[in-house]
C-alpha cells in the first residue's frame, strides 16, 4: 500500500508511525513545504521517501495534515492529481469550510472529511508518537459523499489505529468543537499572557507556579501558525463561545466582589459533575 502524507508533523507523522506498525509492507511518502521537516522525518523513519503532489496518481491513501488555511487551497489540487481508487482525507479542526471548498469538485467522492481528536502541544516530525490515536475519537463529516469502497479503505485504517468513529454534519462539528477545543486553547493562551505580563514586574511569580498552572497553560505552547487559521475559519462559533465564557467569568468575579462565597461554592460544586461526564465518555 502506498501512503502519501502531506504535512509530516505531529498528526501526519503519528499516523505514519501507526501505519508502519500495522503494515510492514506499507510505503510511506512525505510531502511538505518545509524541506527540513522532510529530512527530519526521513531520518526518524517516519517516511521512506519524499514526493510531490504530481506523484499522487499512484497513491492508495492521501493524508492531508496541514494547517486548515493551507488545506483549503491545497485540497482541490490534491483531488485533481489522484487516481480513481485513491482516498483522500484531511485531519483539520474545522470541517464546514473545507467541505464547502470541494463540494462541486469532480473527485469529491474520493474525499473524506475527518477530525481525529488527538494531539499534543508540540509540533514537527519529532513530536510524532506511535499509538497517539488509540482510543481517541475521529469525527467524520458528510460520509455519504465518499464512495463506499473508499470509505471502507479509510475506516479500516482508522480501526487499526484504534480510533472510535463518530459521524456528524460539518456545521454541528464546528459548533461543538469551538466549546471543547478552540475555547480551551484561547483560555490557555490568555492565561499565559496574563501571567507573562505580571512576570515582567514580579520576577518570582513563576517560582510559585505548580502543576495546576502548568497543566492549564500547556496548550499555550501550541503553534500559532496552526491555531490562527482555525480561529479565523471558525470565527463566528468561537466568538459565541467566548461571549458565554466571559459572561461566566464576569459572574464569578461579581460573586467574589459581593463576598457571596456560598454562591462561589455552589458554582464550583455544580461544575464538579464534569468529572462523571468525562469518565462516562472514556468508558
Spell out the blueprint of helices and strands.
Elements: E1 2-6, H1 10-22, E2 27-31, H2 35-43, E3 49-50, E4 61-64, H3 68-79, E5 87-90, H4 96-101, E6 111-116, E7 137-141, H5 148-160, E8 164-168, H6 170-199, H7 211-216, H8 224-233, H9 235-257, H10 261-271, H11 274-282
Helix pairs in contact: 6-9
In words, what does this structure look like?
- The protein has 283 residues and is of the alpha/beta class.
- 50% of the residues lie in helices and 13% in strands.
- It has 11 helices and 8 strands.
- Helix 6 crosses helix 9.
Strand content: 5-15%
Mean pLDDT: 93
Helix amount, in percent? 40-55%
How are the strands of the biggest sheet laid out side by side?
A: 3-2-1-4-5-6-7-8
Segments where pLDDT lies below 50 for 5+ residues? none
Number of helices: 11
Distance between the termini: 33 Å
Radius of gyration: 21 Å
Main sheet, how many strands, which sense, barrel?
8 strands, mixed
